[in-house]
Amino acid sequence: MQVFDLEYWSQTIGILMRGTADTLYMVGFASLFAVIAGLVLGILLYITNPGGIRAMPVLNRVLGVIVNIGRSIPFVILIIAVFPLSKFIVGTTIGSTASIVPLTISAIPFVARLVEATLNELGFGIIEVAISAGATPMQIVFKVLLPESASGLVSAFTITVINIIGYSAMAGTIGGGGLGDTAIRLGYQRFRTDIMIYIIIILVILVQVIQLLGQYIARKLDKR
Amino acid sequence: MLSVRNLSKTYKNGAERFQALKNVSVDIEGGEIFGFIGLSGAGKTSLARCISMLEQSDGGEILLDGVDMTKLTGQELRDKRKKLGLVFQHFNLLMNATVFDNIAFPLSIDKKSKPYIKDKVDGLLELVGLTDKRDSYPSKLSGGQKQRVGIARALAADPELVICDEATSSLDPETTRSILELIKRINTKTGVTFIVITHEMDVIKELCSRVAVMEDGEIIEQGPVIDVLTRPKTDTARRFFDKTGVYDTSAFIKEIKPGEIIVKATFIGDSALKPFISDVIRSFDVNLSILSGGIEPAGGTVVGALILKISGSDGALASSMQYFKENGVGIEVINNASL
Ligand SMILES: Nc1ncnc2c1ncn2[C@@H]1O[C@H](COP(=O)(O)OP(=O)(O)O)[C@@H](O)[C@H]1O
Ligand SMILES: [Mg+2]
Predict the structure, then answer these.
(1) Is residue A1 part of a domain?
(2) Which residues of B touch A136 (CB under 8 A)?
């Protein structure tokens, strides 16, 4: 066995660390962009809804259709479909930086729907309090919607990050970098079963940590 | 202060139409506590929501200090809204904000300065007796405490009018009493006008100077609480006020002997405190027994009713009746053997 093989360990750990760093980099940025854009889109969906605080049925419909289209394109196809966009934005179509583009795009509609659903959980009563206090729609968003649904939003973002970790592995399989990439190139194509197992363990731990962290923050934010 | 003119409201659900308010007109005077009473579905909440512009009315005017709210939009409407506070049955508090922040909410919407907000909110906390709950979250409060927060919040922006829609309807009787006392105290102390909406007679009796009785989207009767209480014009009003039992005369319509008479004597305010029963017995040759009765505070004074059986000669009975009337006691003959 290679248990005491220093050469083996330094090499393996190096590979895994690089993969993990790449994955965290991709997931981190994709999550950040997706959460910001998805949050804005989700709030727009919520407030433009007929009966919402800024009802705009046409815009609501258009956004809804765009979101649904986005959600119905399988991720593998999306990666390839946005190659030109990735090339335009980051100058390349391979590697972890390039993967941020499809990861973000695929997660935005997902986040938007989660945000919309979370906001729908809020009763309309408290929003009417804000309206009757003379609040502008912007004030309602920042002083009522976001603080009151903070806990639910964090749960939604946690699910999103975990999803993006899964998708990032998929992006890795077609040259996207990160642990998925390592798993395919070494674990699968070079029969490094050991590497494959370590990667699975790392992914499980990563998901677990994010889940627990998300739950912890969500609970902290919930004063109900 | 508030003048509602011919207000109508129709709810539209697809092809369905439901008219919840039919030509409602009412005038609320500055500084008073005006009550709306009606059974569930009478349109009370619809009226409150239309007045507060949370619901768009079909037509009519809502004049708040002479300005028609229904004609306002955008920033003008938002500014006018600040003159109007709302208190809800289910409190509608921000669950993720402390008691302090809940009360401060309308002020932070109004972009008031930090020191101003602190001063104002601390004063309100004291007014509603929640100073020690300043930093608690609503989930840690009892129903009565939550409603105190709701009331303090409604007062924060110095409104001219506060509308309480069933503010005590989800509270137990004791808590209800304390909230009613609080509303009364605030009204006396600050002079803020209140509209109190309820289906409970006791709330009206305890708080209001005037009342409007609603049924099927209409105001079927309105006037000073005492008048509606002692001389209801409609059956609905009578039924509400009969609940206490004091005013119900139906049980006493029965056979009586010649020379006997059963009357309902209604007295309001000072006359309730006069010893007129003993006066009558002493002054006229009559026998008098009390069959039923009670006295209670209502509309800012005391109201009472006694069901009396009086016997004596026709002359003595007539003089007794005369005496009652001269002393401000309302007399309604329920049963008269000579009829
Ligand atoms: N949003 C709505 N859509 C349709 N009908 C409604 C709506 N709100 C209230 N109503 C109807 O209007 C009537 C009056 O309701 P409401 O004003 O809530 O009465 P109250 O507060 O006196 O109980 C009821 O019959 C109710 O079913
Ligand atoms: Mg109601």
Answers:
(1) no
(2) 78
